[in-house]
Amino acid sequence: MSIFETLESEVRSYSRGWPVVFDRAQGSWLYTEDGTPYLDFFAGAGALNYGHNNPALKQALIDYISRDGVTHSLDMYTSAKRDFLESLDEVILKPRSMEYKVIFPGPGGANAVEAALKLARKVTGKESVINFTNAFHGMTLGALSVTGNSMKRGGAGIPLVHATPMPYDKYFDGAYPDFFYFEKLLEDSGSGLNEPAAVIVETVQGEGGINAARLDWLKNLSDLCKKHGILLILDDVQMGCGRTGPFFSFEDAGIEPDMICMSKSIGGYGLPLAITLIRPDLDVWSPGEHNGTFRGISPAFVTAAEALRTYWRDDELEKGTRAKGARIGEVFTELVQRYPEANLIAKGRGMARGLEFESGEVADKVCAAAFDRGLLMETSGPDGEVVKLLPALTTTEAEVEQGLQIISESVDSVLGR
User: For FRET with 182, which of 43, 155, 165, 227 sits at 20 to 30 Å CA-CA?
Assistant: First the structure.
């Protein structure tokens, strides 16, 4: 592995916790060069909701490449883009009575967020955006300005401005009413709060520590934004595409954001793709006012469309995600009860689950113990104190049980039982 340490930047991270060379992958499994299998409960940080090299998506991709389908097209019209847009409209938007225009901002989630922030400011003529404590929205400067983590913000090298953080759900553990501080600042002419163009929020904060907002909190936030004429941007980059159960993570809350940011699993196969959905009346761009060289990656359109048709014409995937997520929650709750002195906290929704420890050091030890037993999972939270699970939604029930057994053994080995 010396070539990686010699030539690759010190900024690399995941490889430090998993010091092996992976060679192939299928479903919920990654295999090293010598064939050692690892059960993957990381799933590309949520970019592989349908697993590695999903057969249905792989065949569609192979067929497209084999016939010399267009690969790179910027924002030109292609048959692949048409197929994706038609599938998105037919399978996702129309059944939910949702009307949105689609921006293709570039290949990653930060691109989707940047487009939303930029458009919100253009539409409203206001500069300020409200974000939330422990939020994560990306590593480019605009997205980083609405991100909470101090380590990530510290890499910017310049002041991150035009964003004001507010307490996320349960930040004060119920000591104050929801939005007590936010609403007070909005209504007090002496508060000094710049009138916001938009609020950006995650329904479940993945990088922030698997903090799942209550559905009532999300509904009340939506109502607050409408009351004050503030645009609501929903960052569904990691929690969308079924991660919490329904296709959009906010569906159970019964809200309809003004803008929706999606990436990661929207491409289906792990290929780079991002979209920003916007209300039609917000589409005030001039041609070319926001663009990017890699905003038209046709192989990703192909696998994205196939994923929608394969998994979202019925509710089977959603039901399976809810059931498997509930099972993970049960086992995490059992671990909390097994070690009352450790002050563990079970967190999450759907198949975005976390187990919070008293420190990042302990969580790291649990992940290392799991890796030694053949399971990949990462940590999240302000101090890396949460063991974070994002298994592929196609992970079988038997694989879920296998992973949970490894996690239980790993927690036992670290906490001493």
Answer: 155
